[in-house]
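Have a think about this chain, tokens included, and walk me through the fold.
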Amino acid sequence: MKQMAHFSIILLGVIYGAAFSFCTLVTLGDLFYRKVKRVILFPIIAGVIFGIVEFLQNRFIGGINMMPLYLLHTAAAIFLLADKSKENIISLICAEMFSDCMIGSMQTAFFSVTNGAERSFIQVTLLYLTGYITAALFVFFLKRLVRSEDRDPLGLLQIFLLTGISCAVTSLVRRSFTMSDYIPNVSPEAAIPSVLMLMSVSVLLLLSVKADQAKRFREMNELNEKYMAVQAKHFEQSRAADTEMRMLRHDMKNHITVMNGLFDSGKTDELGEYLKELGTAFSDTQSVNITGNEIADAIIYEKKKYAEMNSARLVIDGSLQELNISAVTLCTVLSNLLDNAIEAVSQTGTERVVTLSAKRSGSFYYICISNPTANAVDVSADIPTSKSDCAGHGLGLKSVRNAIEKCGGTLELSCKKAASGYTFTAEVLLPAKK
């Protein structure tokens, strides 16, 4: 019997450690939606360590203290799983607390339902194991419930709310949980708040995710409307340019006659002015075909006019003909970056020129947008800020970064000292067609 007890402690420690680590991993990565490294063997290793430590504690100390195991688990998880940012570490600790509450609630519910029955040593062990495994399955069910390709991470306030409710209810329920050696004695009424807590957490988590998805859906609708407006404007510009080109071709015979007359009369100055005006007319008809990409051309054509309104100039060099991203993504990236650049350059007293260069490199397009800025811009954070240019560079960059990351690209921001003032640069890598 004593050997069986030792074996049960090891088995329970292994299963509990594995279930606890699995729930933490799923909660942090899929429920809270934080960046996490998927170390598949982590739950297994954690389970083995939990089992060995619990056995040694019970054998030599005569009891089990879980706090050192939790601290060891947190340290290992920070080192192996989570990004070492303050927000992710807080989320990890909350995920561990949430997981412990899920396991505790399931365990309480099972022992509460079977409280009045005679239970053997083996039956009690099986109830423990059932509670641990069911908790892991429940967290996996929550993962499937909130799974979505376009959801955003939960905010810390939402994480605190979910964890706080779980811990508060679990703490109240555990007051009716007493231990007599290995066999727990749980009040029959304890199952009700445990089940209600599990249901409440599920509903709150689902509502939080759905609220974020609804917000994102509204943003996507706005982007789609913007894209449709840009596309319609592009077609209108193309039609107008085609009409002007046909008119110029129709009048070409008359233009040649006039130029011959000016040449024969020796009026070279007038001939030069006439050729200059004619060249401007031709360049205007070709302004909608800038990069070879219809959406990019429409956006750039519009931003050129916006730059002129702000006494600035937009210079384009390169092609975007074979970009492999959606029109909405392209619209998000170019519109926001060019708007920010034009707004920033309009606040400077130097030459107001925004430069956009694009070239293909292997399976990616390299796009560089640069502009002068009066003061240095802090690019260490996700959204750069400075005393005078925060309005110019802070708008829309979060949307740009999210859009670029979702299509497999990258965004790098820099601000360097120039001859007069500073130069702000946004460098983008976007996938190209193979």
